[in-house]
Design brief:
The protein is built from 18 helices and 22 strands. With about 575 residues, the protein is an alpha+beta fold. The protein starts with 5 loop residues before the first helix and ends in an 11-residue tail after the last helix. The model has no long low-confidence stretch (mean pLDDT about 95). The structure holds siroheme and iron/sulfur cluster. The site of siroheme has 31 residues, from strand 1 and strand 2.
């Protein structure tokens, strides 16, 4: 590893140029470590095929280098031809699949060094970008995706697009390296990011209640719309959400966003800029594991943080307002839009679009687009909405899905429809265990238990990740499996389908084969003892001695141990949904 710190590399990169252009021009298979780091800000990760690592090492060969390319799609709003451009690239430049992401973006995997520039150029040619999709910068901005027709929905999607625009890095380096732009030599410092950018990644999402599809409490800043009549009149800002942690390191933990203030409709961008720049100026830069804004707020306190934000805006403080949220689920299947037209929520297991195992997701989506030219949105649960459809599209869409072996949402358990697993192996360099590749098989077994217990229509949120970074947001799910080592997972329980409560650690380590038997007793108890209409999340909250949201100090303590310590008054009882 380079001796330079990431902070030094950012500052010395000359506006994120590094020597990426020179390395690209000289050919080869991969970038130097420093350039690979700068490359993230341009929306790509240098990876290798981990399935081949051992074999190549044995043969004394270099790793099978390849790149993940991440397209930003603010609010998930995607034009049909933009999707089709990615579909073509999947075969021509990638590994034959497309991956929808939990932040409403698109990832291509398996892109080789020699194809990287063409891939990024083609993404730009279709009117999208990879700029700022990764790195210590504001990432893809999320927004409620449910395509109901309303003025408020337009405003919510509009704010996501405006935030996305405001927080692009101003450096011309992206255009120079990837789009053959002229070298700009007299560039002014970036007004928002300076030369060191942010201490860490920064995530923003805009929610239109009651929909909580974007998981608003998990964002660095979650923005909640308040509607009067037809219009959004203002927003409540939630700050300090974030999920990444390291197993057993108690200073690292997930945290849900806390209400900061109410902001008038027209002040949202100024408020957002103030928040981002407070994190820029005060977030820790000496320790990347403590650099997210959630830790700044934990360490300095919410009042201190609010004062710093208010110093940077021209409006007066107004207390946060409350809204009631429904669940994080997508609206799959057929729904009315509110303007006489319809939208269809298509289930895409784990967001992976490919033709595989007799189920031709790629072909089906391509055929739907070519036949009916719908408008499209990527959902935060990695599914697709097709919208602005006429009544007569129903038969066509269903025929295409059936012809390609795709199950309709009504054939699935409610838990399966919302369940998600992160990418993990073989591409993710941080994966400690499998996730996406084993999830279908695991969910088939869990589905069988749910059907046996009569729970197939219950909203139970199940998420799995290959390491503790939390990409599929497992820590606020009803049940989360988090990779620790090959074949081994920590099991979390007690979050909520509404996304507003953290789960607690049920078991530190369970073998993959034991996962179903580990959670079965809890599902059985729920089936037997729940009140009429009570969801798993509500049942958990009502009946469990340690049903409270764990505080940061409790997060790494197993539930049984937490119960014991609570009884002995060695831990504080935390309010539910802190
Ligand atoms: Fe993530 C790193 C995939 C959403 C927390 N994430 C990674 C990397 C890039 C691994 C790496 O650094 O080498 C993964 C690439 C795997 C691959 O091969 O494709 C990766 N993250 C993903 C995606 C594709 C998962 C998915 O199943 O869809 C999501 C892409 C979103 C996008 O379009 O931008 C994705 N990642 C998330 C989320 C969820 C969210 O943002 O709503 C989280 C938790 C929220 C949060 O940030 O706190 C998340 N990813 C992380 C972290 C932990 C950050 C931390 O604070 O500790 C890392 C590691 C890191 O940053 O050091 C990480
Ligand atoms: Fe990789 Fe871990 Fe994120 Fe899964 S949770 S994609 S294993 S970083």
């Amino acid at each position: 590893m380079s001796n330079k710190s990431i902070e030094e590399i950012k500052i010395q990169s000359q506006g994120l140029r590094g020597t990426i252009a020179e390395e690209l021009a000289s050919g080869g298979t991969h970038f130097s470590e420093e350039n690979a780091l700068v490359l993230k800000f341009h929306g790509s990760y240098q990876q290798d095929d981990r399935d081949r690592r051992a074999e190549l090492k044995k043969e004394g060969k270099d790793k099978a280098w390849q790149f993940m390319v991440r397209t930003k799609v603010a609010g998930g709003e995607l034009r049909a031809e933009q999707y089709l451009a990615h579909d073509r690239m999947a075969d021509e430049l990638g590994n034959g699949s497309i991956r929808l992401t939990t932040r409403q973006g698109i990832q291509m995997h398996g892109v080789l060094f020699g194809s990287l520039k063409e891939c990024i150029q083609r993404i730009n040619a279709c009117g999208l970008t990879t700029k700022g999709a990764c790195g210590d910068i504001v990432r893809n901005t999320m927004a409620t995706a449910v395509p109901i027709t309303s003025r408020a929905m337009e405003q919510v999607q509009g704010l996501a697009a405006a935030i996305s625009e405001r927080f692009f890095a101003k450096s011309n380096s992206y255009t120079e390296i990837w789009l053959d732009g002229e070298r700009v030599t007299d560039e002014l410092p970036d007004p928002i990011y300076g030369d060191a950018y942010l201490p860490r990644k920064f995530k923003i999402g805009v929610a239109l209640p009651p929909f909580n599809d974007i998981d608003v409490f998990t964002q660095d800043t979650g923005i909640v719309a308040h509607v009067e009549g037809e219009e959004v009149v203002g927003w409540t800002f939630l700050v300090g959400g974030g999920l990444g942690m390291t197993h057993g390191q108690t200073q690292t933990h997930p945290q849900l966003g806390k209400p900061l203030m109410y902001v008038a409709y027209e002040d949202a961008l100024d408020a957002m800029t103030a928040i981002v720049t407070v994190q820029r100026d005060f977030g820790r830069r000496d320790d990347r594991k403590q650099a997210r804004m959630k830790y700044l707020i934990r360490d300095k306190g919410l009042d201190w943080f609010r004062e710093r934000v208010l110093e940077r805006v021209s409006f007066k403080y107004q207390p946060p307002r409350t809204e009631r949220f429904g669940t994080v689920e997508d609206r799959l299947g057929w729904n009315e839009q509110g303007n006489g037209r319809f939208f269809y929520g298509m289930w895409v297991p784990e967001g992976r679009i490919r033709d595989w195992n007799g189920k031709k997701y790629r072909t089906a989506i391509r055929e739907i687009i070519e036949e009916i030219q719908p408008r499209m949105r990527i959902t935060p649960n990695c599914n697709l909405y097709f919208y602005e459809l006429e009544e007569n599209a129903k038969g066509k869409v269903e025929a295409i899905l059936r012809r390609n072996g795709i199950p309709l949402p009504e054939e699935l358990t409610r838990a399966r429809k919302v369940a998600h697993a992160c990418v993990a192996l073989p591409t993710c360099g941080l994966a400690l265990a499998e996730s996406e590749r084993v999830f279908t098989g695991l969910m088939e077994k869990i589905d069988a238990v749910l059907r046996e217990l009569g729970l197939e229509k219950e909203p139970i949120l199940i998420r799995m990740s290959g390491c503790p970074n939390g990409c599929p947001r497992p820590y606020n799910a009803d049940i989360g499996f988090v990779g620790r080592a090959p074949g081994k997972y920590a099991v979390y329980m007690g979050g909520s389908i509404h996304g507003d409560r953290l789960a607690g650690l049920l078991e530190k380590t369970v073998n993959f084969e034991q996962i179903v038997e580990t959670i079965r007793p809890y599902l059985e108890r729920f089936a037997k003892e729940r009140k009429d209409g009570e969801s798993f999340s509500e049942f958990y909250r009502r009946t469990w001695e340690v049903g409270e949201s764990p505080s940061s100090e409790q997060f790494h303590v197993e539930l049984e141990e937490r119960k014991r310590r609570l009884e002995e008054k060695k831990l504080r009882a935390e309010p539910v949904g802190e």
